[in-house]
Amino acid sequence: MIENKLKLYGYWRSGTSYRTRIALNLKGVAYETHPVDLRQGQHKQSAFLQLNPQGLVPALDTGTAILAQSPAIIEWLEEAYPEPALLPKNLQDRAYVRAMAAVVGCDVHPINNLRILQHIKTELGGDEAAISNWTAKWISAGFDTLETMIEKAGGKFAFGDAPTVADCYIMPQIYSAERFNVDLQPYPRLMAVASHALQHPAFTKAHPSVQPDAD
């Protein structure tokens, strides 16, 4: 158990920050929120770059180390705070949950994050419609997969009846899908899981709309 109070550096609407907040809340770990305004370029300023030279959020100050990259942070939380577990006990089940998370973390979010969308707009001349179409294409592809995976192994949550790492990844991606007006009607199982998760205090406390830097 880590005794230092954790400090989370993130941005209210960042999906990676959002998923990290969910994991922290599910673990019941106290942490301080330190907003980093991406729109103002604070992630590229020297004060933040000293924390994370890559200039990306989130970063987690454990008191003894600075951790970057949300997958690494969430895995660290699972090891530092084993209970409640966010990965199943069974080896194959753990792989399945990690695969669900990777659908978002590897295949959807990286090509839809802010810097990619800015590149499409400024370097490739994409308008808002082009950006929305790009975003919807990859979110829908990921959700097609998750709908099938939840059909096979889901319960009240994406995997079974307790929240896992998969839910930490899925919920921010649903928030992003709603922002970009992605049609979610083809995903009834996914949306049922999301509706249930939003009744859990760990998820409601992590929602972007209630963060101190939200506007």
From TrEMBL:
CDD domains per the record?
GST_C_Zeta, GST_N_Zeta
Domain GST N-terminal as annotated: residue spans:
4-85
The top EC class is isomerase
- The answer to whether UniProt assigns keyword Isomerase to this entry is yes
On the tree of life, the source organism's domain of life is Bacteria
Annotated Pfam families: GST_N_2
Could you cite one Gene Ontology molecular function of this protein?
maleylacetoacetate isomerase activity
* Family, as annotated: Belongs to the GST superfamily. Zeta family.
List the protein's name. Maleylacetoacetate isomerase
